[in-house]
Amino acid sequence: MADTSARRRRHLLIAGIVALVIYDLYIFNDYVIRPESMQTAAWIRFGLMTPLAILALYCVRLRLPPAIREATMAATLVLGMLCSSLIFYLSKSPYSFLDTFSFGLILVVGNILFSLRFSFALVSSLLCGVIMAAFVVPYDHTDSAVKINTLVLFVSSAVFTLLANFRLEASERQSYLLLLREQLRANAALHDNRALTKISITDPLTGVANRRHFDTMLELRWDEALAENTLLGMLVIDIDHFKSYNDHYGHLKGDACLRQVAQEMQNHIRNEVDLVVRYGGEEFVVLLPNASASSTMRAAQRIRQGIEALAIPRAGPGVITVSVGAAALRPHKSMESATLLSIADAALFQAKRAGRNRSVLAPLQDGPLPA
Question: Is the pTM of this model over 0.85?
Fold first, then answer.
């Protein structure tokens, strides 16, 4: 009910307005059948029923809870039966008995047009039947045969419209459940696809991006930098003496070390922009879009110092450290994206040759490479 509340409210408002207009148009019927009671009928229709019906529709528009909304419309229906029966009873016209044949229309309005929820439709139909019988049975200006026919016709209308109401509600609920099932399946499929996508681009050990994702993002960031004429930075990071650490402590400790190092790298980057990648083994890459040479070097130093501060004991004296090769260049259409990786990798080689646990920045490439 919560999911369909807005649509249900709109339906009741439109159906209620249509029903009220038709109810008031019956004033022409009063003019033809009971001209002597025309003033009374007009007062009941326009002075009593219409204002109360408008108030009920206004309440429905206020987004009442579903149960109160249905009860409000059911009460309006019962009030309509009471007013119609009162107009009938107060008339002395010999043609007033014709009104009894239209009482069943009130059931059609409530059970079919409004499509009240079945429990409300059942109660309102019973109350309408009691009200109608209370006015028709003691009415002195109609034969008993007409009264019996009226009661039989009303009961038949009630049974048929309630059966139709029950089927409509059951069909509506089934349709909603089928739609909900399809939505749940679609959401589950979307969730599974997102999970599979994340798995396909994530390194399972460290939780950072894998090489496959790096290849895709490098091309994307390269094209962006080329189009916007901005610099693109990159760090190539290698854990110093990691093979010795792995041999000494074992692979489980080695895996834990890789996870700590990867997490520390993520602590020193722009989360929404930069990308940390496990490139292979103990080697990592950080892609830095729109980064100058100086900001690339600062990022390299932050990461290097942060990993050293972790104070992870290594196989020999000291702690785990990293060597970092940093590079920044302005992409040119004559270059390939792999050029940046090659330059940063060369800077990493220099950092290792210089004694490790240091960052080396390659000379800025701000144009096409020399032939």
Answer: no
